[in-house]
């Protein structure tokens, strides 16, 4: 595996800034749902680190469930937007307050699709929390209720976000210079 | 939801002790897997918090994948029956160095099944890392290569482990006083 120092463009969000912002989001969500209960839905795999850290800052009663999704079609860009559910929720969300936690939203296609699908199950409420919002890439309008950071249209990695499945463990979010990046054979 | 302080028997492992031990485990893993092709497998959902914190200290190149399993029949925890795979790995593990990351091993039945199942895919190596080991409960013998803590046969919660799906976000491992605990309605 290539050392990330060889292809890093810049650190977009450092560890301290992430910690501070995640704590703020946790407090904000705790206030918004005060007196209520909440189901946190983690979208695997990118959302995992963010979910684990965010829930540590929640002071309200909450449960956790996970979904795993993938797109039909070849490659990220060829996607029709239709979503295949690899792992569905264990929880019946009818009548529950649901908060979907994602690492990053760009085109919004996957998110829009999931929201639509979950709405048919008639939750009491359905909101979205993303750590990173790549607004410039949006193709489909989606309501994102809690945003960690707005980021430019760059290829990012770290803090749960991978490049070819690597570099998720890094404590910061960085942009990659893809001209310098070499895929691990 | 009941405040955990109402039924807390004792804090078994505090936050500082957990974090120190997790760092030690990661350092051990870093030494052992230097130059190898490490794949971390997290069994949903209890192992998430441990995995995220462990992974942050793992400096050798590694990838991450998930499995979700459930038991056939009622009472997942008590069941000694066979296991249903609700989410399989995305990664082909043939010739990979696989490390299964678990929050807790008690009867060992589920892990034994998962290990046997993964072994058929011929990974180069297959090891187990568990945060907690409740040895007294063991029904099926399994090899544990990395162990955070051996704990007594008590009902524990926190740090990813739930009580009726709640309290996963507490930063410590605690023991429940079951006489005082009221399950959510």
Brief description of this entry?
By secondary structure, chain A is α/β, with parallel strands linked by helices.
Describe how the helices and strands are arranged.
The complex is a heterodimer of chains A (185) and B (185).
Chain A: E1 8-13, H1 15-32, E2 38-44, H2 48-56, E3 62-71, E4 83-87, E5 97-105, H3 109-119, E6 125-133, E7 146-150, E8 156-157, E9 173-176
Parallel strand pairs in A: 2-3, 2-5, 5-6, 6-7
Antiparallel strand pairs in A: 1-9, 3-4, 8-9
Chain B: E1 8-13, H1 15-32, E2 38-43, H2 48-55, E3 62-71, E4 83-87, E5 97-105, H3 109-119, E6 125-133, E7 146-150, E8 156-157, E9 173-176
Parallel strand pairs in B: 2-3, 2-5, 5-6, 6-7
Antiparallel strand pairs in B: 1-9, 3-4, 8-9
Task: Tell me what you see in this structure.
The complex is a heterodimer of chains A (185) and B (185). Chain A has 185 residues and is α/β, with parallel strands linked by helices. Chain A is 21% helix and 31% strand. Chain A has one domain: Rossmann fold. Chain A contains three helices and nine strands, in the order E-H-E-H-E-E-E-H-E-E-E-E. Chain A has a six-stranded mixed sheet. A three-stranded antiparallel sheet of chain A has the order 1-9-8, with helices on one face. In chain A, helix 2 links the parallel strand 2 and strand 3. In chain A, helix 1 packs across helix 2. The mean pLDDT of chain A is 92. Chain B is an alpha/beta fold. Chain B has one domain: Rossmann fold. Chain B is built from three helices and nine strands, in the order βαβαβββαββββ. In chain B, helix 3 links the parallel strand 5 and strand 6. The radius of gyration of chain B is 16 Å and the shape is globular. Chain B starts with 7 loop residues before the first strand and ends in a 9-residue tail after the last strand.
């Amino acid at each position: 595996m290539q050392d990330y120092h060889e292809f890093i463009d810049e650190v977009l969000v450092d560890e301290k800034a992430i910690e501070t912002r995640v704590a703020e989001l946790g407090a904000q969500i705790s206030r918004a749902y005060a007196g209520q209960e909440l189901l946190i839905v983690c979208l695997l795999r990118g959302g995992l680190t963010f979910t684990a850290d965010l829930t540590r800052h929640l002071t309200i009663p909450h449960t956790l469930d996970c979904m795993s999704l993938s797109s039909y079609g070849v490659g990220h860009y060829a996607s029709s937007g239709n979503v295949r559910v690899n792992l569905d929720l264990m929880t019946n969300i009818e009548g529950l307050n649901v908060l979907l936690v994602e690492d990053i939203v760009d085109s919004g296609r996957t998110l829009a699709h999931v929201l639509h699908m979950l709405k048919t199950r008639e939750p009491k409420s359905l909101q979205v929390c993303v750590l990173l919002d790549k607004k410039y890439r949006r193709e489909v309008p989606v309501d994102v209720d809690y945003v960690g950071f707005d980021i430019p249209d760059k290829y990012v990695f770290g803090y749960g976000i991978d490049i070819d499945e690597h570099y998720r463990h890094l404590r910061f979010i960085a942009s990659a210079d893809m001209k310098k990046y070499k895929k691990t054979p | 939801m009941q405040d955990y302080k109402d039924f807390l028997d004792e804090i078994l492992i505090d936050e500082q002790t957990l974090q120190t031990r997790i760092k030690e485990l990661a350092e051990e893993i870093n030494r052992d897997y230097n130059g190898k092709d490490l794949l971390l497998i997290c069994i949903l959902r209890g192992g998430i918090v441990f995995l995220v914190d462990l992974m942050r200290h793992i400096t050798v190149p590694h990838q991450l994948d998930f499995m979700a399993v459930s038991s056939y029949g009622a009472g997942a925890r008590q069941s000694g029956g066979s296991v249903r795979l609700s989410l399989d790995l995305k990664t082909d593990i043939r010739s990979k160095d696989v490390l299964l990351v678990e929050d807790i091993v008690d009867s060992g039945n589920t892990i034994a099944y998962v290990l046997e199942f993964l072994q058929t895919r011929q990974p180069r190596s297959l090891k187990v890392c568990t945060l907690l080991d409740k040895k007294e409960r063991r029904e099926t013998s399994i090899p544990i290569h990395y162990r955070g803590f051996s704990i007594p046969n008590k009902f524990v919660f926190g740090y990813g482990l739930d009580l009726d799906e709640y309290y996963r976000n507490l930063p410590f491992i605690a023991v429940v006083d079951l006489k005082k605990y009221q399950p959510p309605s």
